[in-house]
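Changelog note: in this version the structure field was regenerated for every chain. One regenerated record is shown below for reference.
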Amino acid sequence: MNDQNLNFKAYNEHYSYFQQLLRTNNIKDVAPEKIEKKHFPDVKQYEALLKITPGIILLVDYSQHSYLYHSENISLLDLDIDLMYQFGTTYTFSLFQKDHYEIMRSHIFPEVYKLFGEYIMKGECHNLRIAYCNKMRTPSGEYKWFMHHLSVLTSRKNEPVVGLKHMIEIDHFKKDNVIDFAAYIVNPDNTQSTILKKSINPDEEYTLSKREKEVMVLLAQGKTSKQIALELNISHHTVNNHRKKMLQKTNTANVTELMSVASQRLK
């Protein structure tokens, strides 16, 4: 977009109005006599603006877990466009930081699809908004925080078809390691009502308890669940529950993999 497409005169006039408004706090004293409403004149200008927006725009077919469109600044993420369209959301999930993916898979995504189903049945899916943040891999190999905003555009046969997803990097603003998740409804008067809100800290979510650490030490010594139960004076069933939770927390598939991370988790 070149300078000829930008109305700097109008910008300077509006800037002046707002500066006066800040000083007087009375819009009647500073508003122009006539404000002319103008429609966006050219789709090419919109496309030019889309290219420089800080956020990534995606159109998603939620029923097929596939992508229909992406803005050019998808290059903010470390992904292969062909693979993204071939494997859909399954592929983009691979960009999530490992512990963040586990939280998204087990805590966030089930809530998202539950809400989609609920509000589609109510006929209110177009008013539903979903927002969450997590870390995703960038071309440098570094994981950065992104805010995701989802909304359903069209629905068919009680399932979401096309949704709009807007992603924006918030790494410079995010000061903690908490995954925030919120869902809200846009009311007829354009106000918003929050219907669900969660905050999950991966550091706390995947910290082993004192008992789990005791079980892990004994597993590392090669002891069976039955032997561990006798030594800790707990039931065999309880030991197995601890083992299951440790596998989930450490995102490992078996005891062998669990032992490979034991030295870090036992610190």
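Spot check on this record: Residues 54-204 form a domain with the Beta-Lactamase fold (CATH 3.30.450.20). Residues 36 and 173 are 37 Å apart (CA to CA).
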